[in-house]
Amino acid sequence: MEEKKKAKKRVQMREQDPLKRARNFEEVPYAYSPEEAMEEASRCLVCKRPACMGGCPVEVNIPAFISLIKDGKFVEACYKIKEKNSFPAVCGRVCPQEVQCEARCLVGKKGEPVAVGNLERFVADYEAEKGEVKLPEKPKPTGRKVAVIGSGPGGLTCASDLIQAGHQVTLFEALHKAGGVLVYGIPEFRLPKAIVGREVEYIQKLGVEVVVNAVVGRLYTVDELLNEQGYDAVYIGIGAGLPMFLGIPGENLNGVYSANEFLTRANLMKAYLFPEYDTPIKVAKRPAIVGGGNVAMDSARVALRLGAEKVYLIYRRSEAEMPARKAEVHHAHEEGIEFLLLTNPTGFIDDGKGNVCAVECVKMELGEPDESGRRRPIPVKGSEFQVEIDVAISALGARANPLLPKTMPDLKLNKKGYIMADETGMTSARGVFAGGDIVTGAATVISAMGAGRKAATAINDYLKWKYWDFRGPQ
Amino acid sequence: MFKILKKQELSEFVTLFEFEAKDIAKKAEAGNFFILKIHEEGERIPLTIADFDREKGTLTTVFQKVGKTTEHLGTLNEGDFISDVIGPLGVSSHIENFGKVVCVGGGVGIAPVYPITRALKEAGNKVLSIIGARNKDLLFWEDKMRDVSDELVITTDDGSYGRKAVVTVPLEEFLKGGDIDMVIAIGPAIMMKFVCKTTEKYNVKTVVSLNSIMIDGTGMCGGCRVEVGGETKFCCVDGPEFDGADVNFDLLMERQRMYPDEEKAAMERYTEAIKGGK
Ligand SMILES: Cc1cc2nc3c(=O)[nH]c(=O)nc-3n(C[C@H](O)[C@H](O)[C@H](O)COP(=O)(O)OP(=O)(O)OC[C@H]3O[C@@H](n4cnc5c(N)ncnc54)[C@H](O)[C@@H]3O)c2cc1C
Ligand code: FES
Description:
The structure holds two protein chains of two kinds.
Chain A: H1 2-8, H2 18-21, H3 34-41, H4 51-54, H5 62-70, H6 74-82, H7 88-94, H8 101-104, H9 107-110, H10 116-129, E1 145-149, H11 153-164, E2 168-172, H12 181-184, H13 193-206, E3 209-211, H14 222-227, E4 233-236, E5 242-243, E6 256-258, H15 259-268, E7 287-290, H16 294-306, E8 312-314, H17 326-334, E9 338-340, E10 343-350, E11 356-369, E12 375-379, E13 385-388, E14 391-394, E15 398-399, E16 432-434, H18 437-440, H19 445-465
Helix pairs in contact in A: 3-5, 5-6, 5-10, 6-10, 7-10, 11-13, 11-19, 15-16
Chain B: E1 2-9, E2 14-20, H1 22-27, E3 33-37, E4 45-48, E5 51-53, E6 58-64, H2 68-75, E7 81-82, E8 84-89, E9 100-106, H3 110-122, E10 126-133, H4 142-147, E11 151-156, E12 163-164, H5 168-176, E13 182-186, H6 189-202, E14 206-209, E15 225-228, E16 231-234, H7 235-238, E17 241-243, H8 249-256, H9 260-275
Parallel strand pairs in B: 9-10, 9-13, 10-11, 11-12, 13-14
Antiparallel strand pairs in B: 1-2, 1-7, 2-6, 3-4, 3-8, 5-6, 14-17, 15-16
Helix pairs in contact in B: 5-6, 6-8
The structure holds flavin-adenine dinucleotide and FE2/S2 (inorganic) cluster.
The site of FE2/S2 (inorganic) cluster (FES) has 12 residues of chain B, from loops.
C-alpha cells in the first residue's frame, strides 16, 4: 500500500521560496539530487510500447534514458537523449512536457506522470558538470558548404546535424549573440544564459563557424550566399520575430513596450543589471502585461523581479485557455502576479507628459468556440473600468519579419507572410530550406529543433542529388 | 571586432571615426545607418553612416557626445576596436534627378546629410545646401558640403560664424524663389519640425531622417515606433527617412526622452568612474 501511494506522486524539484525569488533572477527550481533523480526514475514502467515517445516531437528514447538513470548511469542517460535531441539542458527546462511526453505517460493515468522534463534536465546538467562533454569523431569532409540563417533552437540543431554530416557550416545571426529566443526572449530565471552559451560553444567546437551581427537580407542576400559566396544550400530559421501591438489609443506613449523589446532589454542586454550594463529599462511600480502565453508570463515575472510592487496580467479569456506552460502559470500565481482574466484593454491613458498612467479595460465573456476551438471572448457592455499602471507590455504573439523574405522574389510565402515549406523543409526557392517559427508561426523550442533536424536530413539528400521538387505544404 | 582607423575631433563635442567594416561598406548607401555596441556591457545605439569607402572597406560616422555611450565612444582611439557593428540598416535614400533641391543639415545632422547631398548632386540635381549649428565650434564639413553643392549657406544661432540665423531663414529665402522641387533635412527633431512647418507653406515635399531610440534595428522590438500620417511605423525598417509633412515630431521628441533618469544616472556613474581612474 505504502509503496503504491508513493509512486502516484512524483518527486518534486525543490524550489526557491516564491517571495524571495520574486526579487532575483536566479533559477526557480533547484536541480534533483542524484538520489531524487533515481527515485523519480524508478516510477517509470519502461513500457514495451512507450506512449510517451509518440508525444515527443523528436522521438527521444525516453524509457531507455530513464532506465539508465535508474542504474545511476547519468552521463550515459544524457548521451542517449543526445542521440535525438542535441540540447537536453534547454528542453528539460522549456518544453511543454505536460502536453507532450508526460501527457501520454501511463503512470499519469492513475497519478502524476513521470517527470520526464525534470529528469532530462538533471542528466544534462550532470553531464555538463561531471562528464567530459563528448565530441563525436570528425566526419569525412564532403566539400559542401551550407549557410544556416538564424541561431535559434532550429538553426542550432540544423547546424549541429549538418556539421556532423561532414559539411562546412556557417551560422549567420542578426543579433550580437547567438541563441535566438533562448537568449533574447526566455529569461535567466527560466533558462540560464550560461546553458545556451555552452550549447553554442559546443557546435563551434564541432566546427560550425558562427557569424554574429549578420543581418541576412541587408548585409548579404541569400542569392549572394548561393551564387557568389559558394554555399550549396541555405537553411532559414529566422523565427517569428515581429511584435504585435493591440492597435488601441495611447499605444505609443512612453512606458508601453512590446514584450520583445521589454524582454530583449532585460535578457539580451541585461538591463536588470543596469547600471553595470548600459541598457536602461523602465522599472515599473505597477506594470500590466497583456496576453496569456509564455511570453506574457515571462514579461510579468521579469517586471516583478525588476522591483514592481504589483504586477497585473490582463488576458481576455479565462485561465483554462491560457497557452502558457502550466508550470509558468503556477509560478506566476505563487509569486503574486494578479490575473485580470476575461478582461481586454481598450486604451492607454496619458499622464499629460507622454507617459502611460492607466489602462482602460472592458470585461469579456466567453461565447461560441472560434476557429482555434477556444471559446470566443465577447465584450460585456457597460463593464469598462480603469487600472492605474506605469508600464504596459503587450505580449500578444508574433508575426513573420519580412526583412529577409522580401529580398527573395522566388520564395513562396503564405498569406500571413510565413515561408511555405513542405514537411522536409524544402521551399519554392532552389537550394533553400526553412523551418521553425518562420514556417509554422510562433510555436515551441522543440518543434523548431525537430524542423531543423528534418531539414538537415533533407539538405543531405539534396547535396547528393541536387534534386528539387517543391510541391508546397501538404 | 571593428578597428578604428581614423579619429578626428571635429569640435569639442563632435567626433569622427573611420573604421573597418568591409562587408557593410560594400552594401552601404546614402541614408543608411548602423548599430554599434562598444563592449560586452554596452548598449546598442544607432548612428548614421556619414560616408563609406567600398574599396578601402571602411565606414565613417560622426557623433556628438550626448550621453554615457557616446562619451565612452569618444575616448576610443585609432587602433582600438568596437565590439559590434550591425548594418547597413534602414531604407536607402531615394535618389533621382528631382531638379532643384535644398539639403539642410543641422548640428551633427550635417554628417548624414552629406552622402545624400553628394548622391543628389551626382544624380544631376541643382543642389542648394544649408548647414547650421548653435555656434562655430559645432560646425564641421563646410568644405565637403561645398564640394557637392551648387550653393552653400552657413548659419549659427549666435552669429559666431556665417549668418546669425536658424536654418529655416535661408531655407525660406530659397523657397520664395518658387522653383524648389524637394527639401531634405536632417538634424535635431525640433529643427526638422520647423523645417517642415516652413516648407508646408510652400507645399514642397520634405524628407526627414528620424533618430528614434532603437535596439535591434531589424523590426524585432518596436522600440523605434514613430507616428507618420497617423499610423505607427518602425523607424528602423520603414525609415529612417519619412515624408516630414506626415511625421508626429512631438511624439518623436517625447519618445526620445523615455529614459531621462536612467541616462543621468549612467552618466554620473561614468563620470565618477573616470575621475576615479576607472
Ligand atoms: C519570451 C518567449 C518565451 C518562450 N517560452 C517558450 C517555452 O517555455 N517553451 C517553448 O517550447 N517555447 C517557448 N517559446 C517559443 C520558442 O522560443 C520559439 O518557438 C523558438 O525559439 C523558435 O525557434 P526558431 O529557431 O524558429 O527561431 P528563434 O528562436 O526565433 O530564432 C531566430 C533567430 O534568427 C535571427 N534572425 C532573424 N532574422 C534574421 C536575419 N535576417 N538574418 C540573420 N538572423 C536573423 C534572430 O535574431 C533570432 O536569433 C517562447 C518564446 C518567447 C518569445
Ligand atoms: S529598433 Fe527594434 S524594431 Fe526598430
